[in-house]
What does this fold into?
Amino acid sequence: MKRKQILSILMASAMLVGMTACGGGSSDGGSSEGGDASAESGEASTEESGGEDADASSGEKSKITICWRDDGTDIELNANYQQMQAAYETWDKKDQVELEFAPITAQEGDYFTKVALQLADPGTCPDLVCEDTFQMPNDIAAGYLTNLDDYVADYEDWNNGMYYDSMVTMVTGPDGSVYGIPYCTDTRGLFYNRDILAQAGVIAEGEDWQPTSWQDILDACAAVKENCPDVVPFWCNSGVATGEATSMQTYEMLLYGTGERLITDDGKWIVKSQGIQDSLQFLSDIYTNGYGPSLSLVLNGQAGNTSAREYLPEGKLAISLDGSWILGNYSETGAAPWDGYEDVLGLAAMPTSEGQDPGTITLAGGWAYSIPENSDNKDLTYDFIQHMMQPEYYKTYIMQAGNIAVRTDTAEDEDYASRPLMDVATQFLETAEFRPQNDQYSTVSTSIQQMVESVVSGASPEDAMNQYATSVARSVGEDNVVEQ
It folds into this structure.
């Protein structure tokens, strides 16, 4: 309770009564279909929103409870928090609504399980949830998210091209309906320390590095290990504790780089293949040759923060396979300010395994603001989402987060476009792949994480693949897997 009291933003001294439904709001917040949204704001009528005017006249405030994953960073440095606070100050419903922040403190691998439990329970679920879009098909199938079709039908920016088409697709469920407003996307690549690679003889001083195959990466790691013995040559998320980061920005970056995919066109999960073996062999080569960090560093939930916020800025890491968002750490207001990082840090595209077409690969993902089906303040929550996604408030988020913008007008903003390395990260979208829009993916992803951790802990690629095949077949059914 102490944590929640610290994080809650209490904007009124009046006692809040009658709050028995999800999110603690005092009105029912509208129907699951989204209510009668107006052209300009998406605001529903007084009758549909559960009597907002009555709440305002009685002096009681409605409450919007907001949830995201807390990674241990000071909340005031959190990009979502900064965006919401900036928007709240100018929101025309500020006097009617109180914001309560209730982030879930969890390792990335545990966040989705914990948030699903909250979404399923009307007594604990938030009104606004930060939803990783890979999890959307699963949460849609479970009935946890509100269909936003009626809301976005009258959202001018949604319908006039201000959101990239690919981002609209990203939040569209298997039924063709919209279940979130996207607020970021990302790409993945190889961040490298120019000074270290120059000292190791991989590049000349001041040059850029662009490997053309996995062997180029291994050769660079060997040179760093020999010439810079106090430096970790290579870091990638490698365990169950880092959850989806291990699945997507490590394993899938490798697998897709072989030309293979996780699932066939007819929906069968590929559990044995040459591409799987090759991907696991690369990871085995990294760790058996001593190119990776110690397992005590990499097999815990803070591994991503350790590499991005400590080892890279402190010159203790040569190459890191990571996402574009880590750049947000290095700004003056970031979690790990790094003066002059643009002169030291480079970003290379991840090559395909042998340089085969298309030559490079990236996985793109993103997050969205979604409204749980069990929210009791849907209309107010949607109105706030739309308000805070206006360019001036969205810019607050995207500049702090270091992610790639989902709005076309923001992408053209001078401050955004001038951020170091973001133009490079954005170019990676040209060869981007996405995770399967399949509600079994989150289950398969857990098996991927176990397989990767098994290999980096010493198991052979073949043994790890065989265990993966067994695990996936058990989870999704023998009829839904295939060997190639």
